[in-house]
Amino acid sequence: MLRYCCTFQEINRLLQIEESTPRGVAWLRLGFRPFFLAALAFGAISMLIWLGVFGGYRSLPLAGLSGMVWHGHEMIYGYSMAVIAGFLLTAVRNWTGVATLRGIPLLLLFLCWLLARLLLAVGDAAYLYYAAVFDLLFNTGFLVAIAVPVMRTRSWAQAPILLKAALMAGSNLLFYLGAGGALESGIVVGLFSGLYLVLALILMLSRRVLPFFIERGVGYAVQLSNRKWLDISSVVLFVAFWLADIFRPDSLPVSLLAIALLVLHAMRWVGWYTPGIWKKPLLWSLYLAYGAIIAGFALKAAVYFLDLSPYLALHAFAVGGVGLMTAGMMSRVALGHTGRDIMAPPAVLTPVFLLLVAALLARVALPMIDVSHYRLWVVVSQGLWIVAFSVLTLRYFPILTQPRIDGQDG
């Protein structure tokens, strides 16, 4: 987990598809297609279900889980894992030069993910076991699918990614053990570990690609740097932060570690700044999402020192750090890997990203200003999120389901 290296050639291969003859159904040619489309649609649908539950109109059994537990699990192991699977099944192919799942094998992996989501939403408590089986089959199958190319080519620079994927599977297992009554703290440990692992993966990949995206996307010469000491220390402290918040939640050590992470990541964030990002929605969305994670560390520190609600930090991480970052990353990767010009993205992306920024402010900032209307702010945030992901789903459906416009495979 301490090695954050990615050469220019590796990043360039991530953004380019090798020329080859197109084969198979378009939406099953590469992992990003089914999983990004599913993530976008599920992002809207799952939030709509949560809006109904939050408003007291629960009509689905949710596998016997409470609405809040179901919401937390599905945003981490449903939505986020779909984005991660789509991204890494595509990226590992380009990092290693070895083909990843496509066609029927990809479809089977996707169906495991989909069946778990359906069973957890419409199945009653008796179906929790079957949901767990399909969900853990998906976690395991995904891990194997990215591990085989990495090990075959001895691409050990990608080992931290494999470790995080394995830990995600283990955390999901802990959740199901807790939900099934076999492990008392399983639900809490599984959910918080899952969230922090998603954040760890986002921070690692951001360190790899965000400076590259900015340097080549602003339209003028700029050179952004990374500091090795900062990379190593931020990883070590994040692991300590994760473990401290699991075993001593919202304690003084957690707040002190959050302050240290706030300082380190703010240094990196400021070092990546250049004014040209504000003209490019595919840049400022990712930059602001990274800033939301930094804000999450600040709010996490305030839980102990200012007695602030821990849910504010959690949603700064989730709505901004995960939601906005993944929406921006999916939008960019889908364009590049279907042969489209990432310098001329769909015009709808600007209002969509602004909706997600507004959703973040409604969920985190407004409750701090006016807590008396807390439920209203939550509903407003949910509504903005639903609209944003619905628009993205409709706009990217043809992009993700039709062949590449340049005639290449992928």
UniProtKB/TrEMBL annotation:
Transmembrane segments: 35-55, 75-92, 104-122, 128-149, 161-179, 185-206, 229-247, 253-270, 282-306, 312-335, 347-368, 374-394
Domain of life: Bacteria
Keywords: Membrane, Transmembrane, Transmembrane helix
Pfam family, one: NnrS
InterPro entries documented for this protein: NnrS
Coiled coil (residue ranges): none
Protein name according to UniProt: Uncharacterized protein involved in response to NO
